[in-house]
Amino acid sequence: MLWKTADYAGWGRALTATGEIARPERRRVLDALLKDGLVPAIGMRRSYGDAALNDGGRVIDMTRLDRMLGFDPTTGVLDVEAGARVGEIAAAFAPKGWLPAVMPGTGFATVGGCIGQDVHGKNHHHAGSFCEHVVSLTLLTANGPVEVSREKTPDLFRATAGGLGQTGVIVSARLRLLPCKGDVMVVTERRVEGWDEFLALLDASEATYTVGWIDATATGAALGRGILEEGETGSGLVPKRVNNRKVPFDAPKFALAGPVVRAFNAAYYRRVPATGRTVVKPISDFFFPLDKIHDWNRLYGKRGFHQFQCVVPLASAPALRDMLEEIAGSGLASPLAVLKRMGPGQAGFLSFPMEGYTLAVDFPNRAEARELIRRLETLSVDAGGRLYFAKDSLARGTDVPAMYPDLAAWQAEVAKADPDGALITDLVRRLSLRSAA
Amino acid sequence: MNSTWIILGATSAMARAFARAVSANGAAVLLAGRDKDDLAALAADCALRGARLAEAVEFDARKPKGFAALIARMEAEEGELNAAVFVGSMPEQAAIDADPSLIDGVVTDSYTGPARFLQMLAPVMEARGGGTVVGVGSVAGDRGRIGNYVYGSAKAGFATYLSGLRNRLTRAGGHVVTVKPGFVDTAMTWGLPGMFLVAAPEAVAGDILKAVRKRRNTIYTPFFWRYIMLIIRHIPEPIFKKMKI
Q: Which of A25, A81, A198, A307 could form an SS bridge with A391, CB 3.0 to 4.6 Å?
């Protein structure tokens, strides 16, 4: 059977869809499926909200078109199918001294998804966004297959990078990998006692990879405390990891209740000695810490969760502090909260990154959390910042033009590549992205 | 070790996972099938995952004329020669009811085609004094059921063939592993009703590789299918014939 009807969800599991899914295992089958018109393509559905959903319509699951097609060691360019997972590429290439230049927080993200969201990693302040390392890509549009590159089709490239799959079905891409020293990470972890110190350390960090875990439940003088992790690739031996774990069922509500999270965070903070430490770990443990626990999204129970992620310009740091204060005061946050400094690098009209600070916090799907996220959205826009489409599940379309000044340019390109709106997904519909002005 | 695997039906999801697994161990892989473009993509992938050599070769279970060339290609490789058979076809039983001549194709794809190939390969393996044949059958071959008994009977024939081949190759230091997968998450089972405990192709490939290493004779994958089939095989025929499972 080519099409099967299924219920599916984004990673946050708060938003769901029902519709037909096809999962071609060969290029020939994909071409046949798209012969009568385009269909939105999805990958591992690691976007938290509805970027990979098409309720009532069809989607094509690209995860079986996942082959590495060629590699040129002189240029470091890898030709790879869109369904390949970033973590698989890293595992195959790190021992040979190469890594994907940009890796998001989960190795399960596909190449196609990373392009569609122009994702960033822990090295954004140096390396920029994912699509800045895309040399070219093969796109199936309403006008047939197109070879898209910055040089030949600059506008279509900018509309496709971070373009939420609205310009066509990404079939394969040429990625420029970065040389690395080996397949282990040397990571320095240190405690950060509060907000001001956190920003100062992020500003001063010269490490290739930098990321901050923040205790989003700490208030008062401890507001903004957390752990700063700075990493470099290296070579050496680390013990091989034992089997991954799996969350076997939906956790009950109390699993992430306020007191539990506060206790967990306090323990997690003290895990790192007061004087800091340097540890050596497998690259996957540093880049994809949560991938070890399969289906960790089930910890939030069957109602799922939302992630709020915004970026604000450097000068708006005080506004971000206010947001954190509101989050900490609400008692709703989960242990998963990340603070990072971003560089200016981005490749598309709708790319999320901008020079500034980005904060990401998970919340269980409850009415108070939804209200809080709405307030945070307003604060982000007022601070000259923006929300991340890969994470969002609650935003209003009215704020989008203010957050994304190149929206009109994106709309113009998308209208050419997919005039019939065949590629519209739930996210694009919810935020009226293709028509908002 | 200097080993070479020919993988028949290499475009299937299970075969792809198996090809990747042996590639990661540095084997040479000859990827045999009909869709040349797809095989070329897989060959590139296997080479980048560590295969000593990865090559797409043409194999059609219904065109035995091409078999000799494949055997010759294998003989050109030094060291241990191995074969893994993933071919087979399963038209809907209703389609076969409407056109009984389809049976010939099912039997050729699932049994006589690969058996003929292995029969030509056996003396070469004997001469080399080792090597392993992996034959992928199906739990459907354990008992004829109303839903797919033509496919099941072909797989049953293939399983009996593999048992005999094992008897033969063992004497020359070789080995045969019979693999009986239950429900695996592939294009063949996508969207079929009544699927449960569906296994990932990567898990099945891991099980097969382990069975090769340990020289197991017959494996069910995932393992619990051994018990499911144990029960199904022991249902008395007077009852079984009235059941629809």
A: A307
